[in-house]
Amino acid sequence: MKNLLFIFLAVALFCSANSFSQINRQSENRPFMLRGEVVDGETNMPISKVNVEILGGQYTTTNLSGRFAISAKIGDELVIKSDDFVTVYYTIDKDDFVTVRVEKALGDTAPPLSKSEQKNKPNNFNTYLDSAKFYLKKDAQKSIEFVTRALEPGRNKNISKTENSLAFETLGDINLFWNQPDLAVDNYKRSLQNASNPNISIKLAKAFAQNKSYQESISTYENLLRGSLSPYQKVEVYEGLGDTFKAIGDGVKSVFNYQRGLDVAKENSITSKITNLNSKIGEAYAKSGALNEAETYFDNSLKLAKKENKERAVSEKNKVADFYNQNREYKKEIELREETLQELKTLGEGVAVENEALTSQRQNYKIANAFVAQEKYKEAIPYLEKSIAEANKAEDLVVQKDAVRKLSEIYRDIGEFDKATESYQRYVEVVDELYVKKEQEISQAARFSKEITQKQNRIISLENDRKLNESRYKLAFENQELIERNSQIQKWVIISLGIIVLLLVFAAYSQYKNVKQQKFANNLLALKSLRSQMNPHFIFNALNSVNSFIAVNDERAANKYLTDFSLLMRSVLENSEEDFIPLEKEIELLELYTKLEHFRFKDKFEYKISVDENINLNDFVIPPMLLQPYVENAVWHGLRYKEEKGLLEINFKSIDAKTVKITIVDNGIGREKSKEFKTENQKKQKSKGMGNTQRRIGILNKMYKDKIAVNVENAFVVDSQRDGEGTKVELILKKD
């Protein structure tokens, strides 16, 4: 029994742990509202109306303060776009306020697209290029494949010179990132052949330097300085010259160019470059042995980096720590590396850093080396053990190998030969594993390089095919021009005939339109005339009611009736010029009118008005005073002659979203008996109210395509107390 209980508890704990881990994974991938700002990289001024989107997701723009808010998840790619600056791609790695600095796209001297190029511009070119940039640092082959798709010829698809330049620039960026500078040089050159752009020339110079073509790099940079550059571009050129001279061991020229770049950056408040250049000048001085000058610039870079962001500050602390190590100031080095370790913990494991030294295992290894240099072996051992454990966890065999070897040497030097032997055996195992891994990496690199070269050759082939197609197109275009010149006269004749036909059609259409407008105007005039007849008729009937109260000396009733009557008349006169009023207003008028009639004939009938709650009264319109004649007819010709008390029901019911049915039912004497009560004079006269209403409905249905339908029939009302034929009026009102 106890065993069963133990098994049950173990299963329950396992399930709850799994569910808890699933909840954690779901919460980590839960969308959140990412907030940030877009600022000019040179002036730090906010930029409004910038397109901000999540790749394949939501879209927004920055406000007047350069701020934005967008729903995102960890790992999403944020794309910042505008015609005024270079597109920025930013991978979201935490829920924090994001500041995006952009570089203005100055100096683009590429020719504008012609009308034919704009007309035939492929809609999917930018999509493919954006996809290539998205995968640039993740998957080189996929990124190049998207560039290939962008350049592939297709039906009605012409690639402009500007687009061709962008495609080869993107290829160069891919090659440079994946350490293929020779291919990068070739692609940047092709990009510049299509459109001259200082930014691409700067990238070309960097590719030359990375490919160890130092003289070509220096020449490209110097040519750029002779042209027109933005302040940011000038800083990049001077920085690139400094990097190139540093690579060939010319420390004086390296520092000279770094210093010129630093001066331009300070003049234009380019903060990020000021930090970088202070750091690089410090490195150049340290390399040439000018340690005091190097320390001054490293102190500057360290202070400036702390004002930027934690990642930049950690990177700079690592550089300065390396300098202290070179200068044998081990205490300062250890302090900085301890700070770096703490900050790496706060930054988390997801921080993307290009410098491999910015890992906790390498920092621990370097701290241990600093202790070993001071012959403090016991202090070094814990750091080496941490380095080995973290390197093993991160599968960093290089650091693990160095740390295990160093630990073996320390144990040997302090006389603990058993531990030294054990560590050395671990060192041999790691070296063997590293050897196998390096062989695999070399094989993969060779295969990767081969595949990339094949894709590059395919793109060059596509480019050559495109040029050949352009030549064929040019020849076909010239032949087409010759054919068009020969048939020009024939075309002019056809065009002239077409114009004559169009003029005749236009004249006929204008005549038809004028006739239609005249009919419409006549209908409006008729409606106005009928409305003008309705008002006197209604007023005459109402005054008769007032006269009847006065005749029986019921002044109080007459006064009350006149008060309500004046309210009704004011509403009627306000709507007298309108073709249509909201259904809600018509119901209010009808309620007021029915109340007046009930006030006079309260002994003759009761009334009930019901409105369906599903009807949106403001969505429907109706001609003013359209329903009043039917109610008046029900009261005066049906209910007034009943001996017992009658009932008048008015219902407004929704048939669907665009149709309302209005029903007016009375249980009066009916139409046939009503005719018997008419005098000879009344029989000769036709009912003004009903006749005008029928004519109004007829005209409105002609003008607005059967907007209103009316049906009048016998109601056949029967109940336990009274029966009668009654009258039922059904009116269908349509929304449009």
From TrEMBL:
<keyword id="KW-0802">TPR repeat</keyword>
<feature type="domain" description="Signal transduction histidine kinase internal region">
    <location>
        <begin position="527"/>
        <end position="605"/>
    </location>
</feature>
<keyword id="KW-1133">Transmembrane helix</keyword>
<keyword id="KW-0808">Transferase</keyword>
<keyword id="KW-0418">Kinase</keyword>
<dbReference type="InterPro" id="IPR019734">
    <property type="entry name" value="TPR_rpt"/>
</dbReference>
<dbReference type="Pfam" id="PF06580">
    <property type="entry name" value="His_kinase"/>
</dbReference>
<feature type="signal peptide">
    <location>
        <begin position="1"/>
        <end position="21"/>
    </location>
</feature>
<keyword id="KW-0472">Membrane</keyword>
<feature type="transmembrane region" description="Helical">
    <location>
        <begin position="492"/>
        <end position="509"/>
    </location>
</feature>
<dbReference type="InterPro" id="IPR011990">
    <property type="entry name" value="TPR-like_helical_dom_sf"/>
</dbReference>
<dbReference type="GO" id="GO:0000155">
    <property type="term" value="F:phosphorelay sensor kinase activity"/>
</dbReference>
<protein>
    <submittedName>
        <fullName>Histidine kinase</fullName>
    </submittedName>
</protein>
<dbReference type="InterPro" id="IPR036890">
    <property type="entry name" value="HATPase_C_sf"/>
</dbReference>
<dbReference type="InterPro" id="IPR008969">
    <property type="entry name" value="CarboxyPept-like_regulatory"/>
</dbReference>
<dbReference type="GO" id="GO:0016020">
    <property type="term" value="C:membrane"/>
</dbReference>
<dbReference type="InterPro" id="IPR050640">
    <property type="entry name" value="Bact_2-comp_sensor_kinase"/>
</dbReference>
<dbReference type="Pfam" id="PF13432">
    <property type="entry name" value="TPR_16"/>
</dbReference>
<feature type="repeat" description="TPR">
    <location>
        <begin position="401"/>
        <end position="434"/>
    </location>
</feature>
<keyword id="KW-0812">Transmembrane</keyword>
<feature type="repeat" description="TPR">
    <location>
        <begin position="275"/>
        <end position="308"/>
    </location>
</feature>
<keyword id="KW-0732">Signal</keyword>
<dbReference type="InterPro" id="IPR010559">
    <property type="entry name" value="Sig_transdc_His_kin_internal"/>
</dbReference>
